[in-house]
Amino acid sequence: MPYEQVLTYLDDPTLQKSIISVCLIILVGITKSILKRVLVDRGKKHKKNYRSQVNTLNNSLNISLVFFIVIFWSGEIQEFALSIAAFMFAIVFATKEYIQCFLGYFFYLSARPFRIGDWIQVQDGIGEVIAADWTKVTLLEVDPHSNAYTGKHLFIPNNQLLLKTVKNLNFLRRYSMHQFTITCEPLIDIVPIVSHLEKRAEQYLADFHDVAERYKSVIEKRMDIEFIEIKPHFHIHTNKFAKVCITVDLFCPVEQNLAIEQSITQEFFQLWHLELNKLPVHETLKPASLS
Fold it and tell me: Using CA atoms, how far apart are residues 196 and 290, in angstroms rounded to an integer?
């Protein structure tokens, strides 16, 4: 290709803008990669949560890049928009989901219902927020029963933030209201056993009582309502199969709730079988008291 033709191509304003835009995109990509590596390394070194900073960096650079390109190509975009005015309705209709996601992202930025690192629930999905961009929120799934990570990722479109109820569970990450039910046959009087277990439950939670009291105060202060009961609560009732049920409510550390549940359940059935074995066979349906 002759040298004059090369200069002619380079004199084309559209080609010049294209080259500048491509170089800018590459430059932003390299800058993002370098800064992300620096933030991750520094976060791991100081054992701090770096996800929020990385997410803010990505979104800031992406928004700045798009804003600059839109301004840079404003003339061409305006001409293009005028040329397709007749098809604008069809384009909006075809991209309405993306527009809703875009609006959902601005709702997230303005309302701040959660932050990176918070635990949230959207419908049946529960997890820790690890990233949020223009189209979706990424969660690291959490099992609601064990409060442990499942290793799965949940991708919530931003339009769901506008259409569905979002529950912020961040205040219940360390301590939670753990509830479980023990079911047994109505063969003996379990009231003395339950009274004994109430005292035992208080002993199980004694080591966490002071921290639980402070954490309870923080949660209730943020929510401006008192709703947490530190003391273990046992409720005796029956189910539709005429079985006796004991529902236990505990405010305890998340990592300890299953262990405490197992201990209380195991102790209950040990006492239940002990009392049952004391009765003659023909009296198993009569109430018995705990020794």
Answer: 9
How large is the C-alpha radius of gyration of the chain? 30
Instruction: Measure the CA–CA gap between 36 and 30, rounded to whole angstroms.
Output: 10
180 and 158 both lie in a single domain: no
- Amino acid symbol at 158: N
Tokens of 21: 């835009």
Residue 46's φ and ψ, nearest 5 degrees, are -95, 5
Which domain range does residue 193 map to? 174-283
Helices 51-72/74-83 angle, 10° precision: 70
pLDDT in single tens digits along all 291 residues of the chain:
555 555 565 566 777 788 888 888 899 889 888 888 888 888 877 777 777 778 788 888 888 888 888 888 777 777 666 666 656 666 777 777 888 888 888 888 777 888 888 888 888 888 989 888 888 899 999 887 777 788 899 999 988 888 888 888 877 677 778 889 999 999 888 999 999 999 999 998 888 888 888 877 777 776 656 667 788 999 999 999 989 999 999 888 888 888 899 999 999 999 999 988 887 754 544 444 444
b/e per residue 195-210 (b: at least 16 CB within 10 A): eebeeebeebbeebee
Alpha carbon separation from 68 to 20, 232, 269 (Å, rounded) = 11, 58, 69
In a domain? residue 273: yes
Are 149 and 179 contained in the same domain? no
What CATH number is given to the structural domain containing 250?
3.30.70
Domain shared by 192 and 262, yes or no: yes
pTM for the structure as a whole: 0.54
Q: Given 146, 170, 194, which residue is the final one in a domain? A: 170
